Amino acid sequence: MRRIASTSRIFEPIVASSSRRIPRVAAALPTFNPVPSAAARRATSYARAYSTHSTAPPADLGPIPSISAENTYDIVIIGGGPAGLALASALVSHKTIRDTTRILLLEGGSLKPVREWDDQGPWSNRVSSLTAENIEWLESIDAWQGIALDRSRAVDDIIVWANPDTNATPMLHFPGSDRPLARMTENINTQRALLRRLERAPEGVVTVREGARVAEMRYGEGNGWVGLRIGDEWVRGSLVIGADGPNSPVRTFAKIDTFGHAYNAHGLVATLEHRPDPVWPNHTAFQRFLPTGPIAFLPLAEDASTMVWSTTPPLAAALKRLEPAALTMAINAGFTLPEQDLAIMQEALLAADLMNAPLSADGLKGILAALPDAQPTDAPLPPVITGVQPSSVASFPLRLTHADAYTAHRVALVGDAAHTTHPLAGQGLNAGLADARVLASTLDKARSVGSDVGGITALAPYPRERYLPNHAMLAAVDKLNTVFGARNPFMNWARGTGLEVINELGPLKAFFMANAGSSASRAPRTGAAREFGRAHASDPLPGVAAGLPAALADAAEAVQVARQVATAAGGVLAEGLRNALRRGADALEKK
Amino acid sequence: MSSCRTARAATRLASTALRPRPALLATRTSRLATPSSTRRHSTQQQTTLNTINQDEIDHFSRLSQHWWDETGEFALLHRMNPERVEYLRQKVAMDPHAEPEWTFADRSNDKRRDEARGSGRWLEGKRCLDVGCGGGLLAETLARLGGDVVAIDASAHNIAIARTHASCDPLLPFVDEHGAGPSTPASIPGRLEYRHTSAEALHAAGEKFDVVCSMEVLEHVDQPGEFLKCLGDMVKPGGHLAMSTISRTPLAQLLTITMAEDILRFVTPGTHHYHKYVRPEELRRFVAKEMGGHAVWEANEDASDIRVGEVGETRGIIYDPLGGRWRLWPGVEGTWAKGMGELCNYMYHAKKRA
Ligand SMILES: Cc1cc2nc3c(=O)[nH]c(=O)nc-3n(C[C@H](O)[C@H](O)[C@H](O)COP(=O)(O)OP(=O)(O)OC[C@H]3O[C@@H](n4cnc5c(N)ncnc54)[C@H](O)[C@@H]3O)c2cc1C
């Protein structure tokens, strides 16, 4: 909290001052606020400093010292996370960029763990599902070949369910095809592959500097460049790209606001251990919607999986403090117990935590034994968990944020700097990779016609292509979270009917899947690989007359189904529901 | 920062008050190609240099903002620029006459060779002239592409604004009015020089260029024929002449005069004169008849072009409001469909024989 707020002070956009500048001229330059008076500046600085308990005095803003040609770049990317590295890799895969552009990537932390990651060792808890579409793209920019494949688990099936009461288990099943729907890949694995891609780029195109935290940003005179201070040294770029994560200092500098809301939830992550299943290889992702949020089981290997349990912050905190054996028990309960019983267990966990005496494994066993006998449910269950890797247990707050804009004069945002979402759809990083892909090709085109890469006009195609899709995804995930989290008879019925209708109707489901943003569903496939008759809604129905009658039947069916689904789920957030269900496929595919 | 000259330029600008009118459909203004008026400006400048009036500085700061405010009144012109340069790229970088000899041996490399030709700094080593450069929108892009660019304008203000803007970009190979620069590293090729002069003066000095551009100027000059001959003369053998202008059609009148000037007031009324507009075929025929025809200029490389008595290619350029960008209009030479695209704004290109 403290770090964020103090950076926002430093990143106030201020036109660089210089003894030769006539202030009135700078004040009249387009787009940016003029230099505030020193007093006003100090006042705001103190106000912010006060609110964040920071005692640092406001920095006095002298002129930017002159910056050498060596330290002058066309593009400066801030952030060596997956989004920043993907963008740099994408840029060097474009010929014009490679031939004409100098790129600097600044990472505040160290990239040593990434570079030296040896694909052995324990599983990281920062794992993302990469969609088939993004994997294809990473292949095309020559980066996927650096992935440690035995540390990237194919997800062939996704099963999503909720059981609001004991006799109803509405369920969605996304069957596999001849290509995985997605691959669970540790972020560090992806980052290492991208870093290796950069190391193969021709000399002098990309400079990667780590341990280089940007402490100050200012527009140069005439807004012709952006100066960045790293320690005592200044560098500058025609374009600065914020790939600097959810608290993006670049976004603050560019005065781009965000909107959204915090989910009153934390995501608890952990690496789970279980026995290999001789019959069912571990390629299925499971997600159960509980009243407090979804709990997801995501395969990593035959005997390991990762979990994201989104739940209330106190419960997440209580779970995090459990000893490993007790946590193992609680997670198994989370996937299997009926909701009423789970509620009892959670009460007990919270009560004990409040007393500062987290339940022991034996204590929890006692509570679970006292529960009324659970009816066997017909829900499909993930493997029984035998243990949790203690060091992998962590939790993070969940937020929906979307930047008002992705670009400003000499600034662009990608990845979490531009948007964050609930992990239930596993779309966070996938959206960031798509941003990187589009921004890189936008810059390549701009460069090939000699445009100033920092100009709004040159950058315009990027938000044009990415803003709405990202927005639709964020909204759909948000609504899914609401719809599946609600517990009242009407919603239960609506949700149940909605899911069952989708599940029963192959063509519609195929349609959902075809729109799930994964080109796996668009890829040619063998008939036998599909549970349902058609890969695409547009394919002819097997055994049914083709041509116009089939088309009419399709259309009639689609209308019928759409109406059914809409009514079933209707009344809830009328505007977005159909969209949400459609995007639901996207969501379910991941977690 | 040593090269950035906001202050100095503002001082120079304080001398006169001439506000450029905003543009619609890429109509640049205040680009009078008459050297006499420009000379008057410079003398005036000498005498008033010391009377720095704060209001005037503010005024000219606003003015400089107009050329380079990408979201402001010149937004359409900013958006047109990439498409104009794309046209140049197709004509200059992808010039079929400059294509390396095709052999069976390397036929599998066609795609890669094409990519190599049309990418990177494809104007490197080419001497370019931008006549009527305004604030320098086109000139800067040509310089960034590696071109050795001379950009001229008859308005002293425009030249001052263009110089100021270029001097603030550390990656532009900008040369100031004293010939100092460029201060960019040797690894960045190209040269960008602004001159307050006229095409006629350059011509008289015997200057020659590989690429001569004049965007949205033809419709403002009083003697388009003399102007064209002057531009054509400055093209080196094997070089290119590229222009953009507006056709004399009812549609153009509706869009650029009735709508833009009289109704929406995007452009100051009186900026455009319908009778000064030139139709595409008039331009092509003029080059054929009066500028040496095919003895001097290459035939249009488009194999579908079988027209006689016309030189060069015209190509419609149309604003797509949904895409927020301009698009070059496609079509087969000499067909009705292609002509439809040239009813308002269009590009012209001709290549001189080597
Ligand atoms: C614990 C956890 C688990 C997650 N699990 C999943 C999941 O299962 N699936 C999924 O899809 N998503 C998940 N996410 C989200 C996913 O990790 C993000 O979408 C992804 O990391 C975004 O990458 P990024 O590069 O945009 O930002 P980040 O990974 O946040 O990278 C930002 C980088 O910028 C650097 N930086 C910031 N400020 C500066 C500065 N001033 N100077 C220099 N460098 C700076 C930081 O050091 C950092 O390396 C998870 C996130 C967390 C925290």
Automatic annotation (TrEMBL), chain A:
<dbReference type="InterPro" id="IPR018168">
    <property type="entry name" value="Ubi_Hdrlase_CS"/>
</dbReference>
<keyword id="KW-0830">Ubiquinone</keyword>
<dbReference type="GO" id="GO:0071949">
    <property type="term" value="F:FAD binding"/>
</dbReference>
<dbReference type="GO" id="GO:0031314">
    <property type="term" value="C:extrinsic component of mitochondrial inner membrane"/>
</dbReference>
<dbReference type="GO" id="GO:0120538">
    <property type="term" value="F:2-methoxy-6-polyprenolphenol 4-hydroxylase activity"/>
</dbReference>
<keyword id="KW-0285">Flavoprotein</keyword>
<dbReference type="Pfam" id="PF01494">
    <property type="entry name" value="FAD_binding_3"/>
</dbReference>
<comment type="subunit">
    <text>Component of a multi-subunit COQ enzyme complex, composed of at least COQ3, COQ4, COQ5, COQ6, COQ7 and COQ9.</text>
</comment>
<keyword id="KW-0999">Mitochondrion inner membrane</keyword>
<keyword id="KW-0503">Monooxygenase</keyword>
<comment type="similarity">
    <text>Belongs to the UbiH/COQ6 family.</text>
</comment>
<keyword id="KW-0831">Ubiquinone biosynthesis</keyword>
<keyword id="KW-0472">Membrane</keyword>
<keyword id="KW-0496">Mitochondrion</keyword>
<dbReference type="InterPro" id="IPR010971">
    <property type="entry name" value="UbiH/COQ6"/>
</dbReference>
<keyword id="KW-0274">FAD</keyword>
<comment type="pathway">
    <text>Cofactor biosynthesis; ubiquinone biosynthesis.</text>
</comment>
<comment type="function">
    <text>FAD-dependent monooxygenase required for two non-consecutive steps during ubiquinone biosynthesis. Required for the C5-ring hydroxylation during ubiquinone biosynthesis by catalyzing the hydroxylation of 4-hydroxy-3-(all-trans-polyprenyl)benzoic acid to 3,4-dihydroxy-5-(all-trans-polyprenyl)benzoic acid. Also acts downstream of coq4, for the C1-hydroxylation during ubiquinone biosynthesis by catalyzing the hydroxylation of 2-methoxy-6-(all-trans-polyprenyl)phenol to 2-methoxy-6-(all-trans-polyprenyl)benzene-1,4-diol.</text>
</comment>
<keyword id="KW-0560">Oxidoreductase</keyword>
<dbReference type="GO" id="GO:0016712">
    <property type="term" value="F:oxidoreductase activity, acting on paired donors, with incorporation or reduction of molecular oxygen, reduced flavin or flavoprotein as one donor, and incorporation of one atom of oxygen"/>
</dbReference>
<dbReference type="InterPro" id="IPR036188">
    <property type="entry name" value="FAD/NAD-bd_sf"/>
</dbReference>
<dbReference type="GO" id="GO:0106364">
    <property type="term" value="F:4-hydroxy-3-all-trans-polyprenylbenzoate oxygenase activity"/>
</dbReference>
UniProtKB/TrEMBL annotation, chain B:
<keyword id="KW-0489">Methyltransferase</keyword>
<keyword id="KW-0831">Ubiquinone biosynthesis</keyword>
<feature type="compositionally biased region" description="Low complexity">
    <location>
        <begin position="1"/>
        <end position="21"/>
    </location>
</feature>
<feature type="binding site">
    <location>
        <position position="220"/>
    </location>
    <ligand>
        <name>Mg(2+)</name>
    </ligand>
</feature>
<feature type="binding site">
    <location>
        <position position="153"/>
    </location>
    <ligand>
        <name>S-adenosyl-L-methionine</name>
    </ligand>
</feature>
<keyword id="KW-0999">Mitochondrion inner membrane</keyword>
<protein>
    <recommendedName>
        <fullName>Ubiquinone biosynthesis O-methyltransferase, mitochondrial</fullName>
        <ecNumber>2.1.1.64</ecNumber>
        <ecNumber>2.1.1.-</ecNumber>
        <ecNumber>2.1.1.114</ecNumber>
    </recommendedName>
</protein>
<keyword id="KW-0460">Magnesium</keyword>
<dbReference type="GO" id="GO:0031314">
    <property type="term" value="C:extrinsic component of mitochondrial inner membrane"/>
</dbReference>
<dbReference type="GO" id="GO:0010420">
    <property type="term" value="F:polyprenyldihydroxybenzoate methyltransferase activity"/>
</dbReference>
<keyword id="KW-0949">S-adenosyl-L-methionine</keyword>
<dbReference type="GO" id="GO:0032259">
    <property type="term" value="P:methylation"/>
</dbReference>
<dbReference type="GO" id="GO:0061542">
    <property type="term" value="F:3-demethylubiquinol 3-O-methyltransferase activity"/>
</dbReference>
<feature type="binding site">
    <location>
        <position position="215"/>
    </location>
    <ligand>
        <name>S-adenosyl-L-methionine</name>
    </ligand>
</feature>
<dbReference type="GO" id="GO:0046872">
    <property type="term" value="F:metal ion binding"/>
</dbReference>
<comment type="pathway">
    <text>Cofactor biosynthesis; ubiquinone biosynthesis.</text>
</comment>
<feature type="binding site">
    <location>
        <position position="216"/>
    </location>
    <ligand>
        <name>Mg(2+)</name>
    </ligand>
</feature>
<keyword id="KW-0479">Metal-binding</keyword>
<comment type="subunit">
    <text>Component of a multi-subunit COQ enzyme complex, composed of at least COQ3, COQ4, COQ5, COQ6, COQ7 and COQ9.</text>
</comment>
<feature type="region of interest" description="Disordered">
    <location>
        <begin position="1"/>
        <end position="47"/>
    </location>
</feature>
<feature type="binding site">
    <location>
        <position position="84"/>
    </location>
    <ligand>
        <name>S-adenosyl-L-methionine</name>
    </ligand>
</feature>
<feature type="binding site">
    <location>
        <position position="219"/>
    </location>
    <ligand>
        <name>Mg(2+)</name>
    </ligand>
</feature>
